[in-house]
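haha ok so turns out i had the wrong file open the whole time. this is the CORRECT one, sorry everyone. sequence first:
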Amino acid sequence: MITGVHTLIYTTDAEQDRAFFRDVLEMPFADAGDGWLIFALPPAELALHPADEGGRHELYLMCDDLHASIAELEAKGVDIARPVSDEGFGPMTSIRLPSGSEVALYEPRHPTPLSPGGDLGTTGPN
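then structure:
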């Protein structure tokens, strides 16, 4: 039924942020025409959190080793926008895009269907 997820980041400088995802994060992409790049994302997961009203959407990039990822990104000139904090679910920071907006980056400590040995066919505890 569902074959994928198309995620959007609204930005004040799409061209620079596209170049960042292409050149710095080295994400594979397709050019949909006229430089409109659509990036392949690594495997993803979706969590639904309660909200008092309305609701909002957030994007978190995940990594296996946050400190190693930070060192690799800093070597490429990426601005680490926030100090690492322990959020319980894992250590987290955010990286600044060329447009100035931020994207969260964290190392999950919680069970994930993406972890080695994770079974995407299970429904979790009853």
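The first helix runs from residue 14 to 24.
again sry for the mixup
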